[in-house]
Amino acid sequence: MCGADIVNAAGLSDIAQRFDEASGYDTAARIQKRCAMELADRIRRIFCGKSPKRILEFGCGTGFLTAELVRLFPHAEIVATDIAPGMIRRAQSRLHVPNVRFEVMDAQRPKPDGRFDLICSSLCLQWFTDRALGLARLASQLSAAGRLMVTTLARGSFDEWRKACDTERVPCGFPTYPEPDALASDWPVNGHGKWDVVDLRDTPADGMTFLRELRDIGATTPALHSRSAGIALRRVIRRFDSTMSGVTYKIAFGDFERHIPKGVFVTGTDTGVGKTLTSACLVRAWHANYWKPLQTGLAEEDGDAPTVRSLARLSDNRMSPSAYALQAPLSPLAAAEMERITIDPARFSLPSCSDTTPLVVEGAGGLLVPVTDDWMLIDLIALYGMPVVLVARSGLGTINHTLLSIEALRARAIPIAGVVLNGAPNPGNRAMIERFGHVRILAEIPLLPSLTAEVIDERAQFMPPPDSIFGPDATLSTSNSEIA
């Protein structure tokens, strides 16, 4: 039985209730304290005297790690969260400092709350139902070069108890924790991470104390559903006591650094608004590379990538193949389901590119187009963290569509490079979008008599210079009140 099975069976509300009822947590949580202290020391060494401005802690429990973060970074804004309201109340009673805000939150579905320079947690990750998805959602809230630093239980934890169970031929009752290679494969695609596994030893008085203290901290313990199960458990405890010299916790320390490449993500207020045309102009203007991670509608056309290749005069080495190329002219999720394909977000790793050559990534459809059951296109954009070029029609109806798209991007703290208006010039609509969207209009592309490489050469001259998007003097829209 894996950790995800345990969580799915119990349900998140049941987990929260168990931790709420763990009144003896602080007394029994010896390993948790040591683990939090070691993680805090690693965080201290990584930041090396530089304080992160904003910190998100998930699974804060009663505040072991939170207290260390306050000590290390007294001027940082700290948001400490846990799924269990009772744990939050105990942490609040321990820490009365103005720079810490406590919230109840499921870390697998973090609330949009701006960008964080550090996201951290000690011994919470093993409760995730989908570790890779949860880490990706958290990493999408990191600032550029932000760190995600966590600990979790790894394969080999509680081996002494497992051996006693094996000898007595009794099911262990604990989850099977992941190997380091499995943990490494779960890192998000928008950066680089590593794991370091350390042995921590605990010495409970005996097997019964070991189980009782696990229960006292809200952890998983073997269930007793019958008299025979109780008899079997007592045999295991006797075997454990006869050989026990301690209990091993294999603690995996994870350190992930977000990388935001030089480039933009081109998306639109709708399908057919001119994303491919805009992408071709940007690629040509910036001598950029191009990638379309998701392509649909190949049953009716050749796709956007060949169009950009032709219009922008791109060589093959400046293009990367789509992660998914689907036949039906539908949303990626619907098109994939028609072909009995399951889209795996792990395949959306950004192509390798140099620090000097920009990358233009073109989306599929609008922001809230479903990619998987858990991902919309906007989630992919948030994961990459690249500034967004939003393409919109210039005519009637565009104000509403454009402002709604801007609101959705800002709700996830996604930087907006600006808007490209496609179609007959409309000064009134342009002024309203600038005024109420607080964004720049990067370019206006008029109705074109034809689409040729020569036309793209001419329109590329009207695109903004790359340094204005991702250079040292870049001006990006970050809020509803300013362009920063």
TrEMBL record:
Superkingdom per UniProt: Bacteria
EC number: 6.3.3.3
Active-site residues, as the UniProt record annotates them: 292
Domain Methyltransferase: 55-142
EC main group: ligase
Record-listed ATP binding positions: 272-277, 304, 362-365, 446-448
Chief site of localization: cytoplasm
Annotated GO MF terms: ATP binding; dethiobiotin synthase activity; magnesium ion binding
Binding of substrate, residues: 296
CDD domains xref list: AdoMet_MTases, DTBS
GO biological process, one term: biotin biosynthetic process
Cofactor(s) needed for function: Mg(2+)
Keywords: ATP-binding, Biotin biosynthesis, Cytoplasm, Ligase, Magnesium, Metal-binding, Nucleotide-binding
Catalytic reactions on record: (7R,8S)-7,8-diammoniononanoate + CO2 + ATP = (4R,5S)-dethiobiotin + ADP + phosphate + 3 H(+)
Compartments it resides in: Cytoplasm
Chain sites annotated for binding Mg(2+): 276, 304, 362
Listed pathway(s): Cofactor biosynthesis; biotin biosynthesis; biotin from 7,8-diaminononanoate: step 1/2
One matching Pfam family: AAA_26
Its job: Catalyzes a mechanistically unusual reaction, the ATP-dependent insertion of CO2 between the N7 and N8 nitrogen atoms of 7,8-diaminopelargonic acid (DAPA, also called 7,8-diammoniononanoate) to form a ureido ring.
Sequence similarity: Belongs to the dethiobiotin synthetase family.
Record note on quaternary structure: Homodimer.
Designated name of the protein: ATP-dependent dethiobiotin synthetase BioD
Lineage start: Bacteria, Pseudomonadati, Pseudomonadota, Alphaproteobacteria, Acetobacterales
